[in-house]
Amino acid sequence: MIDNHIPHWGIPHREVIMSSEHALIVGAGAAGWSAADTLVRSGWPGPVTIVDPTGPTNRTLVNKGVLTGLLGREQLGRPIPAGTELLEDEVAAVQADGTVHLRSGDRVAPTAVVIATGSAPRRHSFSPDGDAGAERILPLHSIEDAERIRSLLPSSGGRVAVLGAGLIGSETASLLADSGVDVTLLARSPLPLRDQLGPTVASDLLRRHRDRIRIRTGRDVARAATRSDIVVVELSDGETVEADVAIVAHGTLARRPSVGAQTGALTVDARLRTGLRGVYAAGGVASILSHGTAVRVDHWEDAAAQGAHAARSILHDLLGAADPGEYRFESGFSARIHGGTLTAWGVATRATQWSRHDSDEAVGVGRHFGQVTAVAGIDAAGTVRSIVEAARRDLREPLHRYPIGV
Ligand SMILES: Cc1cc2nc3c(=O)[nH]c(=O)nc-3n(C[C@H](O)[C@H](O)[C@H](O)COP(=O)(O)OP(=O)(O)OC[C@H]3O[C@@H](n4cnc5c(N)ncnc54)[C@H](O)[C@@H]3O)c2cc1C
């Protein structure tokens, strides 16, 4: 049913009545693509429409491909899943009754909706002094960000300050160093990535950074002054770092349309339901809640796994297919950093208890209540794989049964 409410952004609207069993996937990234593909492959009886202003894009190549100049923007696109259709539009809001409002002014009433709108970069907390060069302090999240950063660097390499030594900051620092850029990596934590990868692997990564680039740890950025052709970053201990560009790599926050009365990341249950009938969420936009703890993971494979899980929950809830059960964070990710290959699996938080694996390799094993929930290693993919296989065999309960989180 469609009501006659005028969308709050004031664009006159047209009404689109969907055929029955219409699935609408909001966002064509890792999670949305996979949700749409799973629905089609599982025999969803009606049309599957993906709404995205840009179409499917592989965001993981923004730094590895576009920033390095190895790939052009068109090479990050992906075809839409077979059997689906793409609507180049943006979703502005999903009402409590499931009605979806598009920026174009259209409104639709699908049977099922998966919100997979991903994330936005977390902003820096300092206010840059001076305005002429404010555009030299940039996030690295979109193709446009990567192209802008490239345009600000001289062909001889130039200097970059990377603010934040998480996975994207660390990988980007390494990629830039490979391209001949003079890199300074600035980290608030004394041991960056300790919570996510454990102290064994985090210490190995820190050593690799120290061998290859300039790194300052345990210090905040106090301010950044921009001039027309330079940015000067001042640390909390007074040290200054000059660069052509400062890349802000402070992690991500959920990016989303307005959905019912929810604010912040979209909280979903362990079957990825938002609480609005027929509306699900997956990927970087979603925070998965179980036993009082919300966990948000923003990695490609995990987003794709969440998208597929949301699709299976839809098939179960609306068509009576088998119950997919509670979602488990059992995906992996890898990165090349200063010549080493980081391989990791699962999910870790501050509450994870890490120990070094009993081998000569840099491998850490993270546990909750004795259950292995995260594994990380450098140049140790085989060992990580065998620990993961054993952990999967032992996994008696979904990870959500364990009180992950702070
Ligand atoms: C530079 C960089 C490098 C990365 N490298 C890695 C890596 O090596 N390994 C890894 O595991 N992860 C990596 N990631 C993280 C990974 O890209 C994300 O975790 C993953 O893309 C999340 O998938 P998603 O589907 O939730 O969001 P996205 O893939 O970001 O897709 C969201 C989609 O939603 C669309 N959208 C947004 N708002 C709306 C709206 N209102 N209406 C309609 N559509 C909308 C967007 O256009 C976009 O296409 C990287 C991220 C970045 C920024």
UniProtKB/TrEMBL annotation:
Cofactor(s) this protein cannot do without: FAD
Domain FAD/NAD(P)-binding: residue ranges: 24-307
GO biological process per UniProt: proteolysis
Short name of any one Pfam family annotated for the protein: Pyr_redox_2
An annotated GO cellular component: cytoplasm
InterPro entries registered for this protein in UniProt: Aspartic_peptidase_AS (IPR001969), FAD-oxidoreductase/Apoptosis (IPR050446), FAD/NAD-bd_sf (IPR036188), FAD/NAD-binding_dom (IPR023753)
GO molecular function, one term: oxidoreductase activity, acting on NAD(P)H
Keywords: FAD, Flavoprotein, Oxidoreductase
PANTHER family: APOPTOSIS-INDUCING FACTOR 1, RIESKE DOMAIN-CONTAINING PROTEIN-RELATED
Protein's name in the database: Pyridine nucleotide-disulfide oxidoreductase
